[in-house]
Amino acid sequence: MLTAERRRSIMQTLQRDGKVLATELSKSLHVSEDTIRRDLRELATAGMLQRVHGGALPRTPATASFTERQQQDSGAKWAIAQAAVRLIHQDQVIILDGGTTLLQVAQHLPRNLRATIVTHSPPIAVALSEYPEIEVIMIGGKFDKQRQTTIGAATVEAYRHIRADLCFLGIRSLHPDVGISTHSLEEAYVKRAMIASAAEVVALASAEKFGTAAPYIVGSLSDLTHLVTERSVPEEILAPYRAQGIAIIRA
Amino acid sequence: MLTAERRRSIMQTLQRDGKVLATELSKSLHVSEDTIRRDLRELATAGMLQRVHGGALPRTPATASFTERQQQDSGAKWAIAQAAVRLIHQDQVIILDGGTTLLQVAQHLPRNLRATIVTHSPPIAVALSEYPEIEVIMIGGKFDKQRQTTIGAATVEAYRHIRADLCFLGIRSLHPDVGISTHSLEEAYVKRAMIASAAEVVALASAEKFGTAAPYIVGSLSDLTHLVTERSVPEEILAPYRAQGIAIIRA
DNA sequence: TAATTGCGTGCAATATACTGCACTAACAAG
DNA sequence: CTTGTTAGTGCAGTATATTGCACGCAATTA
After folding, report:
1. pLDDT tens digits, one per residue of A134-151
2. Which of A123, A158, A251, B111 could lock onto A79 through a cystine, CB 3.0 to 4.6 A?
């Protein structure tokens, strides 16, 4: 494995997990810890990460809370992202929601995928720089620092002018009766605009999102065409969704 | 086998495998490693791939040029950013251009600055998450992976609806006669829109930008109200700009 | 105190890269 | 046809990069 390739891999791991350990990297990349330490030192000198005892952390605490969230339960998110990616076909126009799960999806795309990806999440746009064949459309608006997405009238308006094949929607609350809901009114508006702009809507929901409801309604279950979730979710919980004709993928 | 043919083959392999090794290419294409290395060097110069020890990797603007560029000559950039920040007042609406220098500016803002910052650079928006008192407006559009900014009609149009107090402009070429110019037509349009939307325009230019010109004109010197540059730039070079009534800050 | 862990440095071995030079083939000008 | 020019190639020698190892240091823990 090339040196530069290994360092890219380290950066990717760091971005994905929010931290890296020298010992773990040494094992997973099959080089000595000395080499890893040297890599980390170099990358730190280049300002690409922050060196700490035992490993390294992302350089910008900016995305700290964001990256932190990304750490928790990353196993399930990883599986969901993997499964979701398989729904994508060449040359499609795809809308990607914000959030950590969707960032995972962006990072798991096939390297040679040729497609147009529309997103209102700056971190996702940046992550997609890695893919030479993907055209990225960034939707503007007021920037929500907590969610790391744009929101507001400009965002909703921009989505109005787009007709996408596929939309990947991050789900906060999903309930058989209530439908899709969320904790922010602005976020709900944006998600509605995304749904309205796409032919097929894929919901990405980890296990704990089921049977919960939040104050602001995004839409009904009938808005969804696919639902990607964890394998651990029992069949009886999924039954109402199946009844709606939603294609269920248990990752 | 023709040279051009071989190089196309290299690019294809790179595209397929995500990396190429000089030794392997030498064997599979039946030429010496020197020839392969020459090919890789040429292709790297042409910006088609990124040369690394042992072979080459796909050119990924995010990791390669942007982060790397942020490294180079960061001393001067740092000083310029520091000086530029002092032009900002509380509660202003400020447009921030893309580019590494402007990212530096974003990272050097006072912690408690209360302001609205408008930018078409996703990395800058993310960096501004740090500042609790700053409202960030992200301008959307087609995402330019190399420059890490949005461009195109949507970007220009969005700037039209904004009246800012201050605009910080990254400068690529500055010439007493030609004015402000750049290498990308799209970028020139966006910069023009930024200038048109701001009451005061601050140009940020490191020493090597002076006396150079590029194909696409952004505007004339009279568009500028301030010019922040390095202390090392001699007074006689700055004279024409002073004559225009531009306030010069030598950081 | 002793053991452990992570860190940094110097060293040697190997792999890779660059430089200058000579050779070839294609091609244009005389 | 001959000659000069150019681009492309390979080779030899030298320079640089990368890596793992041995060793000592510092901080933490048993």
Report:
1. 999 999 999 999 999 999
2. A251
The contacts of residue B2 (CB under 8 Å, 6+ apart) are none
CB atoms within 10 A of CB A107: 17
The residue to which tokens 């325009």 are assigned: B201
3-state SS of chain A is: CCHHHHHHHHHHHHHHHCCEEHHHHHHHHCCCHHHHHHHHHHHHHCCCEEEECCEEEECCHHHHHHHHHHHCCHHHHHHHHHHHHCCCCCCCEEEECCCHHHHHHHHCCCCCCCEEEEECCHHHHHHHHHCCCEEEEECCEEEECCCCEEECHHHHHHHHCCCEEEEEEECCEEECCCEEEECCHHHHHHHHHHHHCEEEEEEECCHHHECCCCCEEEECHHHCCEEEECCCCCHHHHHHHHHCCCEEEEC
Inter-chain residue contact B142 with A135, CB threshold 8 Å: yes
Backbone angles phi, psi at A144, to 5 degrees: -90, 105
- pLDDT (tens digit, 9 = 90+) per residue, B152-206? 999 999 999 999 999 999 999 999 999 999 999 999 999 999 999 999 999 999 9
* Degrees, nearest 5: CA angle A145-A146-A150: 50
The answer to whether A142 contacts B126, with C-beta atoms less than 8 Å apart, is no
For the segment B87-97, what is each residue's pLDDT rounded down to a tens digit? 999 999 999 99
* Distance, CA of A211 to CA of A197 (rounded, Å): 26
Q: Is the pLDDT of residue B67 over 60?
A: no
The spacing between the Cα labelled CA in A31 and the C1' in D8, in angstroms, equals 39
Looking at this protein, which amino acid is placed at residue A165? D
**Phi and psi of B50, rounded to 5°?**
-110, 120
Backbone dihedral region of A2: left (phi > 0), alpha (psi from -120 to 50 degrees) or beta?
A: beta
Q: How confident is the model at residue A62 (pLDDT cuts 50, 70, 90)?
A: very low
Residue B173: count other Cβ atoms within 10 Å of its Cβ: 22
Q: Which of B8, A156, A94, B241 is nearest to B249 (CA)?
A: B241
Nearest to A138 among B63, B128, B150 (CB): B150
Residue with tokens 């030598």: B250
Cβ within 7 Å of strand D: which of B 220-249? none
Q: What is the length of chain B?
A: 251
- Closest by alpha carbon to B81, among B104, B114, B98, B52? B104
Name the B residues in 70-129 with CB < 8 Å from any A CB.
Answer: 70-71, 74, 120, 122-123, 125-129
Hey, what are B147's tokens? 């420059």
